[in-house]
Amino acid sequence: MRIIEAVDITYTYPDGTEALRGINFHAEKGEMIALLGPNGAGKSTLFLHFNGILRPTSGKVVVDGEEIDYSKSGLSRVRQKVGIVFQNPDDQLFAPRVAEDVAFGPLNMGLPEDEVERRVRESLERVGMAGYEDRPPHHLSGGEKKRVAIACILAMEPEIMVLDEPTSGLDPRGASQILRLLHELNDAGMTIIISTHDVDMTPLYADRVYVISNGEIISEGTPHSVFSDIETVRGADLRLPRIAHLIEILQKEDDIQFGDYPLTIGEARRKLRERLR
Ligand SMILES: Nc1ncnc2c1ncn2[C@@H]1O[C@H](COP(=O)(O)OP(=O)(O)OP(=O)(O)O)[C@@H](O)[C@H]1O
């Protein structure tokens, strides 16, 4: 079942910039999707359409079978289903204390105080930020702010979580922690959509990948099918995952044949062991 769908959407900013040029995108319930694209491709602009922050110039966005209703109550409904973690946590954190920022969404939903407290506690625990409740968000490091921003959305328990470059600016451990958390949420049934230009990470989590370039979707499919079209990937100013690039060099320059390029260390290990055997 398609839980979210963008149908032929275009978006032109008030200054005339055509940021989206006829995008078709969908996520099935329970999928984990990567939206891969270089800087300025339109990733953030597309995401801002998913919970009605932006309204398409043409086309429509359908969430859970219903076209977004842009009235106040319609937007409040869609925002309970679709939570967006912004690229820059400073756009999301404004309270004097971490706990207040995380409580903001659940309080707005009119939940009782003990339920709000439970959600704040559990969300901060899940992102590894328990103990930071009383800290002012503007004193946190970039990585810590990012985790709190994720906790703010988690606390609303959305069906679909949309994250704009969730691992950028995190150290390797912080990035794997966040990916592990996203896998757990996805295993529990949440639909997850992540924008990124990190091609090395993408095959580690994505069931399906969309490549966006210059406001258009130029490729879509499993990580293997998307990265097998090297020209399209490179044409969008992206590259192959490093491990696939190494295998490409071995195949082309050293004539060692592996078949399909492995995209992760695990896949490369299996292929190399088979060959060495
Ligand atoms: N508020 C705005 N007004 C005018 N143009 C904008 C605005 N925000 C973004 N744009 C333009 O729209 C296009 C798409 O930008 P967007 O931020 O969606 O790209 P992105 O893929 O998220 O990039 P990045 O990876 O750098 O975050 C770019 O050309 C950008 O300059």
UniProtKB/TrEMBL annotation:
<dbReference type="GO" id="GO:0005524">
    <property type="term" value="F:ATP binding"/>
</dbReference>
<dbReference type="GO" id="GO:0006824">
    <property type="term" value="P:cobalt ion transport"/>
</dbReference>
<dbReference type="GO" id="GO:0042626">
    <property type="term" value="F:ATPase-coupled transmembrane transporter activity"/>
</dbReference>
<protein>
    <recommendedName>
        <fullName>ABC transporter ATP-binding protein</fullName>
    </recommendedName>
</protein>
<dbReference type="InterPro" id="IPR003593">
    <property type="entry name" value="AAA+_ATPase"/>
</dbReference>
<keyword id="KW-0472">Membrane</keyword>
<dbReference type="GO" id="GO:0016887">
    <property type="term" value="F:ATP hydrolysis activity"/>
</dbReference>
<feature type="domain" description="ABC transporter">
    <location>
        <begin position="4"/>
        <end position="239"/>
    </location>
</feature>
<dbReference type="InterPro" id="IPR027417">
    <property type="entry name" value="P-loop_NTPase"/>
</dbReference>
<dbReference type="InterPro" id="IPR003439">
    <property type="entry name" value="ABC_transporter-like_ATP-bd"/>
</dbReference>
<dbReference type="GO" id="GO:0043190">
    <property type="term" value="C:ATP-binding cassette (ABC) transporter complex"/>
</dbReference>
<dbReference type="InterPro" id="IPR005876">
    <property type="entry name" value="Co_trans_ATP-bd"/>
</dbReference>
<keyword id="KW-0813">Transport</keyword>
<keyword id="KW-1003">Cell membrane</keyword>
<keyword id="KW-1278">Translocase</keyword>
<comment type="function">
    <text>Probably part of an ABC transporter complex. Responsible for energy coupling to the transport system.</text>
</comment>
<dbReference type="InterPro" id="IPR017871">
    <property type="entry name" value="ABC_transporter-like_CS"/>
</dbReference>
<dbReference type="InterPro" id="IPR015856">
    <property type="entry name" value="ABC_transpr_CbiO/EcfA_su"/>
</dbReference>
<dbReference type="Pfam" id="PF00005">
    <property type="entry name" value="ABC_tran"/>
</dbReference>
<keyword id="KW-0547">Nucleotide-binding</keyword>
<keyword id="KW-0067">ATP-binding</keyword>
<comment type="similarity">
    <text>Belongs to the ABC transporter superfamily.</text>
</comment>
<comment type="function">
    <text>Part of an ABC transporter complex. Responsible for energy coupling to the transport system.</text>
</comment>
<dbReference type="InterPro" id="IPR050095">
    <property type="entry name" value="ECF_ABC_transporter_ATP-bd"/>
</dbReference>
